[in-house]
Amino acid sequence: MRNYILFSGFLLVAFAMTFTFGSCRKKADTIAKITVRDTANVLVPNARVILYGTATEPPLKPVVRRDTTYTNSSGVAIFNYNEVYQLGQAGVAVLDISAEKGGLYGEGIIKVEEEVESTATVFIQP
C-alpha cells in the first residue's frame, strides 16, 4: 500500500511539472508586411501605409487600432503585432490598408495571423 501511495504521489508531481514547464514556450513574431506598388508594378519607397480596424456590427464603435508607418527602400511597410497577440488566442485581426504617396492612393485588406508573417500588396494609382 505504501508503494502505491508513493507511486501515485510521483505521478501527481510529474503531471504538475509537465503542465507547469511544458506550457512556457516563447511565442513567435506576429508581423504584417505590406508591399506597395504603382500601376506599372514598380515598388514604391516612402509611401505612407496605415493599418486600421473598422467596426462591422451595429452600433458602430470607434476604431480601436490604427498604425502608421512608411515603406522602406524596397517598398515594404512592416508592422509588428507581438503586443497584440497573446498565446492561445485564435487569430489576431483583419485590418484595412490605406497607402498613399504624392497624388497616388490605394486600399486593401490584410488578415494578420498569429505567430507568422502575414503579407499583402497594395497598388496605388491616381
DSSP strand tally: 7
Distance between the termini: 83 Å
Largest sheet: 4 strands, antiparallel
pLDDT < 50 stretches:
none
What number is the mean pLDDT?
82
Oligomer: single chain
> Can you tell me the overall shape?
globular
Radius of gyration equals 23 Å
Given helix and strand content, the structural type is: alpha+beta
Strand order of the largest sheet: 3-2-5-6
Proportion in β-strands: 35-45%
Helix content: 10-25%
Number of helices: 1
What sequence of helices (H) and strands (E) makes up the elements?
Answer: HEEEEEEE
Which short descriptors sum up this protein?
7 strands, 4-stranded antiparallel β-sheet, 126 residues, alpha+beta, 3-stranded mixed β-sheet
Tell me what you see in this structure.
The protein is α+β, with helices and mostly antiparallel strands. It has 1 helix and 7 strands; from the N terminus they run αβββββββ. It has one helix at 2-22; strands at residues 31-37, 48-52, 66-70, 76-80, 93-101, 104-112, 117-123. A 4-stranded antiparallel sheet has the order 3-2-5-6, with no helix packed on it. Strands 4-1-7 form a 3-stranded mixed sheet, with no helix packed on it. It starts with a helix and ends with a strand. 17% of the residues are buried. The model has no long low-confidence stretch (mean pLDDT 82).
